[in-house]
Amino acid sequence: MDELEKRIIERIQRHGPITFERFMSMALYEPGLGYYTSSITNIGQAADFYTSSHVNYLFGAVIANQVAEMWNIMGKPDDFTFVEHGGGVGLFALDFIRHIHKRHSKLYHNLTYIIVELNPFLKKRQEALLTEHIERIKWVTGLENILENIQQGTGCLFSNELVDSFPVHLVEFDKNEELNEIYVTEEEGVLVEKSGPCSSDAIKAFFAKNSIKRAQGFRTELNLSAERWIKNVSSIFREGYVITVDYGFNTHDYYAPERSTGTLICYHKHKTNEEPLKRVGHQDITAHVNFSALVEWGEEAGLEPLGFTTQSSFLISAGIDELLTEMHQKLPENDFLKAAAQVRTLVMPNAMGESHKVLIQGKKVPNSQLKGLLNRNILNYLVDTGH
Questions:
Q1: Would you say the C-alpha torsion 194, 196, 202, 208 has a positive or negative sign?
Q2: Residue 342: pLDDT band by 50, 70, 90 thresholds?
Q3: Secondary structure letter of residue 43 according to DSSP
Q4: Alpha-carbon distance 362 to 304, whole Å?
Q5: Dist CA 130 CA 91 (whole Å)
Q6: The predicted structure's pLDDT at residue 54
Q7: What is the DSSP letter of 369?
């Protein structure tokens, strides 16, 4: 038995069953032992999962162009902070900063790039990769540390497949269509599930507000961590943008009757499984994002929803084709064909193009159309979530 699983069992033995949210938090984020915080954490095409930044550097370049447009819209402020929450191995930061340096030099010299990174081992990898631009970069371990490094001002916070990794409450409807919460306990040294009353009034309040009642056995999730996160994000900037890239649905589709087993899934060596209580600390655990809730919670914190679209529509609208054409002029044919195939992974519907979505929110920003939202802004999908 690994140290983390032993620690969880000892906690249960001392204090009783824990919520699945608490279990997931320990499994992913327990200092030095969790999946995202240990020395064995590995992200990439040879690891458990990979993100768009591992596919092709044009992903970071397109985001850089979009952020440069945001900077222009805000009047080219002298002090602009770009926050990446969850830096991975540093690939996105490298692609983003290189492109800003090459194409938007004035912004580069006014830029502070902050990486929010819990894992000290990943931070070392990021530092080694980003040495050529190290003077522009700062690291913090949490959003609460950002204001210690900057004055609250203008900027943008970006995350890519972050919110899906937040710990979620796991819930299930009983025969009376009443909501119960799933807890984690132990039996003879083995972690098992146990049903019980909801641990928080906020859980029942969310399902009541959205008039969600389902048949016996319907299981799903609620990500209250995302509510706390988006409200903390809003406090960072006096004026700015939030770009969230992830996979998910609106409230109606998230809790649709046919989605009766929820969206919780585990990733281990690029294979999926539905055994979150196994391989504790050695596999990723994720749940899809409820973008409607993220918009609503953001509005409560002063963030206006500006647009929502697919990754494909965003990247194409923001000019990935133009960057690919430039690449064609510079690369040998074989290298270009390889890059073009990688870009297709980013934009094709049967790959990341449709499964991944882009949500953009703004705080006290001018009312200007963003290039990445010109082709297909489907924000009404998030607002119209009637049951």
A1: positive
A2: confident
A3: -
A4: 5
A5: 9
A6: 66
A7: -
Are 227 and 297 contacting, i.e. CB atoms less than 8 angstroms apart?
A: yes
Residue 102 near residue 95, CB atoms below 8 Å: no
* Closest by Cα among 58, 34, 242, 55 to 122: 34
Furthest-apart CA atoms within the chain: distance in Å: 65
pLDDT at 210 over 80: yes
CB atoms inside a 10 Å sphere around CB 381 = 17
Q: In what order do the strands lie in the sheet with 265-268?
A: 271-273, 265-268, 284-286
CA–CA separation, 217 and 172 (whole Å): 6
For residue 337, the SS3 value is helix
Domains by residue range for the chain, with CATH: 52-164+225-258+280-383 (3.40.50.12710)
Nearest CA to 346 among 318, 387, 373? Answer: 318
Q: What pLDDT sits at residue 290? A: 98
Residues in the chain, overall count: 387
SS3 state of residue 174: coil
pLDDT confidence bin for 55, thresholds 50/70/90: low
